[in-house]
Write a structure and sequence with these properties.
The chain is mainly α. Helix 8 packs parallel to helix 10 and helix 10 runs parallel beside helix 12.
Length: 292
């Protein structure tokens, strides 16, 4: 009887999130910046009520995290985010992406009925990031916050997670574009978005094509090849790689086959060597998967 091997680090289960700023002080700074930009955008300004009472109400709800199980967020409170992310330019929209990063962690905001809303929010942020072109690897605010929004979306609720699942190809496009960033906060954000994407794929009841899983491998290859990543984002990237190697059915088998043909194991051992004990342990588990 075959016994399926188990590992300490693989596959990734659950999601890493970015929760900084979920308090009255942090939210107040974001809202203040939004109002400052609302006064300077040339078109699609928020109304006085949206920029005032509506944003205050949203911020108040988001700041009380111990009431998330019972508090609610209306579509009227979420509407200003849609306006800003979809219609403002990258110079002005980044605080709105930051507010969306926080809002998506609220279970009512991210419930299943809101999937279409989050598909537009995530799609708008990703388009904004990709619209930077070659500058995506040089800019900080929009790439970092977009990747953090994506990472949180998988955890928020079925609506936001479903939206992210639909947009995985574009998420991987954006991660690839930002992967060689010179900013450590962007690098951690990219690695976390890739990690959570792999975890979502592994937990999904709907199989993904091997071509999508191989794109995760490709992004990790870019991360490993650029030589810029600190230990924590490198470990997260390696766990993402190992997770897609363990996808069920024909997809996982095909990914393992292609990874072997590309000598991914050699790359993994090389990059893990300089990133401490955990990277080494994850590397050993990946090598075990590849040899199985």
């Amino acid at each position: 009887m075959d016994i399926t091997p188990t590992y300490d680090y693989l596959p990734m289960k659950g999601y890493k999130t970015f929760e900084t700023g979920i308090d009255k002080k942090g939210l107040s700074k974001v809202i203040q910046k939004i109002r400052e930009f609302n006064d300077s955008v040339s078109s699609n300004q928020l109304s006085t009520g949206e920029a005032g009472e509506t944003l205050d109400s949203l911020a108040n709800t988001l700041s009380v995290t111990n009431r998330y199980h019972s508090s609610t967020i209306s579509m009227a409170e979420l509407a200003p985010l849609h306006t800003m992310v979809r219609q403002w330019d990258a110079t002005h929209a980044f605080p709105a992406i930051d507010l969306a990063r926080i809002a998506v962690l609220h279970p009512d905001a991210a419930k299943s009925e809101r999937r279409a809303y989050w598909e537009e929010i995530l799609g708008g942020a990703l388009d904004m990031c990709l619209g930077l072109g070659d500058a995506a690897a040089k800019e900080v605010a929009v790439p970092m916050l977009t990747m953090r929004l994506i990472g949180n979306s998988y955890k928020g609720g079925p609506g936001s997670a479903g939206a992210a699942g639909i947009l995985i190809d574009k998420i991987l496009d954006c991660a690839e574009a930002c992967a060689t960033s010179g900013n450590k906060n962007v690098r951690l954000s990219v690695a976390t978005a890739i990690l959570n994407t792999s975890s979502y794929m592994h937990a999904s009841s709907t199989p993904f094509p091997s071509s999508v899983a191989m794109r995760v491998v490709d992004v990790v290859g870019t991360i490993a090849g650029c030589g810029k990543y600190e230990t924590e984002p490198m470990v997260r990237s390696l766990v993402a790689l190992g997770t897609v190697l363990l996808l069920s059915g024909g997809c996982g088998s095909e990914v393992k086959k292609l990874a072997k043909e590309r000598s991914i194991g050699s790359m993994v051992e090389r990059v893990a060597a300089g990133h401490g004990e955990m990277a080494s342990a994850v590397s050993k588990e990946i090598m075990s998967v590849l040899s199985s």
